[in-house]
Write a structure and sequence with these properties.
Radius of gyration: 29 Å
Number of strands: 23
Structural class: alpha+beta
Strand content: 15-25%
Mean pLDDT: 79
Largest sheet: 9 strands, mixed
CATH superfamily of the largest domain: Histidine kinase-like ATPase, C-terminal domain
Distance between the termini: 69 Å
CATH class of the largest domain: Alpha Beta
Oligomer: single chain
Number of helices: 16
Length: 610
């Protein structure tokens, strides 16, 4: 609101100016940790130890073995706009260091109790200086090893309003961990250790590879089939790893970009990555990627964001094209395939959110849903006369106890989830007539309006099961296992388990932890076989689920009849009848179409009768 009375213009006090600067730089404990570790890297450190207490609000300690700071320069460390990293205006056009504004340490000292202790290389004694809520003390001699130790205590204690915006200690600790992890991935030459609340979270030796560090940070499913991505366009170079589309997850938190070693969150880079994955992911899916862009310093401006998380490229088109081209080449090397395009029209379900491949110039929207040029044919009995499709075997589950085979499950003799009864739902109008099965995957139907329907059996069964799970709600119905399953947990899976624990219980899993490294499963959802349960849990804990609804989607996918499974006529009819009585039946829970419809007009055009 405008002031009623005019106030005179006056210079801000140093304390107030520091706190305003702190509002830009020191958002939360993770941002403090980031600034301190970046300073250590700029100081030439190859070993950095980080410890936090109470999510970083109680204490943040960063110790490095870098060059150290001479005693006469130590007071300048906590003085605003004092830095060794730039000297004149020309330096701003080619910034190669992390920190260069010269205000982070002063800003931190204005909202916390800050102590900096440093011993230059070759010196016999160190020096320490303290700042308490903006009040700077005198340098004092201190016993310390070569390098620098910075300790921040009681963050925001003198700014209670800022404390209200912090999350729980667990959440803030996780953000600190993620911030350090990104810096560790960008600096493979350096060793890192991270301790939270007295617990050693991770320790990386120096000179590891990117793949080794990702193996320690990401769950095994996310690291499976990671592909090398590398390429260049003159002085512009891109390298890193990209994930298999089949291991995509529901969160974008494993999309990591680095520009000249600096972790960034850039929409241009993300857009190029998604363009490369276009047609390979379903709606709401996100890939895994850790990509490093190196380019001349004058080609990028890193001075556009107080926390230096955003950058601006001089030649955006060149950067976009390089990222898209390199990632696309890596994905093509995996042998991944795209979903066929399905566009909304008057004769079929809309799939506007579905990723698509480029249609041929002569194809119609309906024609692109069915490849009629395939050499495979089918017999009147519904069995393919060509080579049947065989789904890839799932990875071997990690469990200690012997398990019954899926086809020995007492509740599902065939190893397949039963078509659930839906007494409250009725098919709308007449049922389609079943004509047969193609490729053990698609059911051919004569629809009541005279058109030809092609039903994806897996997508249809997914929708049926998902709607049944929705009606079941959070009942937590479970089937006890005669022999419990024991699963080893990756540290990242243990963290995700804590988040998903209530939802997994609500879905019907009976679970017990065995420390942070093990999980015992004593009961399963009634529709799930033991082998598929392990597969589902691995998928959920790897990041493919973030809510109970996502777990239901995974549960439906793992329980549904698969592509390539032959269905007896009575099984196909049961699925068809139940699917026809299900709401939202046009699409599976992922958003893929379950039914493609070819009208008489479409068929006439395909046979060139028009």
């Amino acid at each position: 609101m405008p002031q009623n009375d005019r106030r005179s213009i006056r210079e801000l006090s140093p304390e107030l100016a520091n706190q305003i600067a702190a509002g830009e730089v020191v958002e939360r404990p993770a941002s403090v940790l980031k600034e301190l570790v970046e300073n250590a890297l700029d100081a030439g450190a190859d070993r950095i130890e980080v410890a936090i207490e109470r999510g970083g609000q109680g204490r943040i300690s960063v110790t490095d073995n870098g060059w150290g700071i001479p005693p006469e320069e130590l007071p300048l460390v906590v003085t605003r706009h004092a830095t060794s990293k730039i000297a004149d205006l020309t330096d701003l056009a080619s910034i190669g260091s992390f920190g260069f504004r010269g205000e982070a340490m002063a800003s931190i000292g204005s909202v916390a109790r800050l102590t900096v202790t440093s011993t230059p290389r070759g010196a016999e004694e160190g020096t320490s200086i303290a700042v308490e809520h903006g009040e700077q003390g005198e340098p004092m001699p201190a016993a310390a090893t070569e390098g620098t130790r910075v300790e921040v205590r009681d963050l925001f204690a003198n700014v209670p309003a800022r404390l209200k915006f912090l999350k729980t200690e667990t959440t803030e600790a996780k953000r600190c961990q993620e911030s350090l992890q990104r810096l560790a991935l960008a600096n493979l030459h350096c060793g890192f250790s991270f301790t939270s609340g007295g617990r050693n979270v991770f320790r990386f030796p120096p000179e590891q590879t990117l793949r080794q560090r990702l193996d320690a940070l990401w769950p095994p499913a996310a690291c499976r089939n990671l592909a090398d991505a590398s390429g260049e366009d003159g002085p512009f170079k891109l390298s890193g790893l990209v994930g298999d589309p089949s291991q995509a997850q529901g969160r974008p938190d494993r999309i990591l970009f680095f520009v000249n070693g600096r972790p960034v969150q850039d929409k241009l880079l993300q857009g190029a990555l998604r363009e490369a994955y276009k047609g390979r992911l379903l709606a709401r899916e996100h890939p895994q990627a850790a990509l490093f862009l190196e380019l001349p310093l004058h080609e990028v401006d890193v001075n556009v964001h107080p926390a230096k998380l955003e950058v601006r490229f001089r030649d955006e088109k060149r950067v976009f094209g390089l990222v898209r081209r390199v990632v696309l080449r890596a994905l093509e090397g995996m042998g991944t395939v795209s979903w066929p395009e399905a566009k909304p029209d008057a004769t079929g379900p809309s799939t506007a959110n579905e990723p698509s491949a480029e249609p041929s110039p002569r194809s119609t929207p309906s024609q692109s849903r069915l490849d009629l040029r395939s050499s495979r044919t089918w017999s009147s009995g519904g069995r393919p006369s060509g080579r049947p499709y065989t789904p890839a075997a799932p990875p071997a589950p990690e469990y200690a106890a012997p398990l019954p085979r899926d086809d020995e499950d007492e509740n599902t003799p065939s190893g397949r989830a039963q078509i659930p009864d839906i007494p409250e739902a009725k098919p709308a109008g007449a049922l389609p007539s079943y004509l047969g099965q193609v490729e053990n995957t698609y059911l051919l139907l004569s629809l009541p309006d005279g058109s030809l329907g092609i039903l994806d059996q897996h997508a249809a069964h997914e929708r049926v099961l998902y709607e049944a799970f929705l009606r079941r709600g959070r009942s937590g119905n479970s089937r006890p296992l005669a022999i419990p399953m024991d699963m080893a947990l990756h540290p990242s899976e243990a963290d995700r388990l804590e988040e998903l624990w209530p939802d997994l219980r609500a879905a019907g899993f009976e679970l017990a932890t065995q420390g942070r490294e093990g999980l015992r499963v004593t009961g399963l959802p009634p529709d799930l076989t033991p082998g598929r349960a392990v597969d589902l849990l691995r998928a959920a804990l790897s990041g493919q689920a973030k809510s109970l609804e996502d777990i239901w989607v995974l549960l439906a996918c793992r329980s549904a009849v698969k592509a390539g499974e032959s269905l007896a006529r009575d099984e196909a009819l049961a699925l068809l009848e139940t699917w026809a009585a299900t709401s939202n039946r046009d699409n599976c829970p992922h958003g893929r179409p379950a039914l493609v419809r070819l009208s008489a007009h479409d068929l006439e055009r395909l046979f060139k009768r028009r």
